[in-house]
Design goal:
Elements lengths: L1 H17 L2 H6 L1 E9 L10 E2 H10 L6 E12 L2 E11 L6 E14 L2 E9 L12
């Protein structure tokens, strides 16, 4: 079961990288959101994952490459969390643009594990590359 939970959050990231909106939608529940953590209030403005998918689909060519590593998974019945370090590289660049932590919350329903919430920190210093 842990393998299923680990694989599902990687799908939206793989979908972003290849601009495959079908792959991205396959991994998220309806109404899923992304909330950046940081700034003056501690939380940034939430975005719907649907808006991120639409924006990604309108782009052309390769997209940013966000990788995660060493995911830590916790599961209780139909709820799971996945906490992982991420590093993002912009298209055509080798230098890491930013890094931080992604926290994916997933629920298990009749359609399997789906991401319903993502929270993420972001920084530009102290980033380390992730082996591909």
């Amino acid at each position: 079961m842990t393998r299923d939970v680990v694989a599902d959050p990687a799908l939206p990231l793989n979908g972003i990288r290849t601009r495959d909106t079908t792959l991205m939608r396959a991994a998220v529940a309806a109404g899923a959101t992304l909330v950046p953590v940081g700034g003056p209030t501690g939380l940034g403005a939430p975005s719907t994952i649907d808006a991120i998918i639409e924006r990604t689909g309108k782009g052309t060519g390769p997209a940013n490459d966000e990788q995660i590593e060493k995911p830590m998974v916790q599961i209780d019945n139909q709820l799971a969390s996945l906490w992982a370090y991420f590093a993002l590289t912009r298209v055509g660049e080798t230098k890491i643009d930013r890094c931080g932590t992604n926290l994916f919350l997933l629920r298990k329903g009749p359609d399997g594990w789906k991401v319903f919430q993502i929270a993420a920190t972001s920084r530009t210093e102290g980033c380390t590359a992730i082996a591909k």
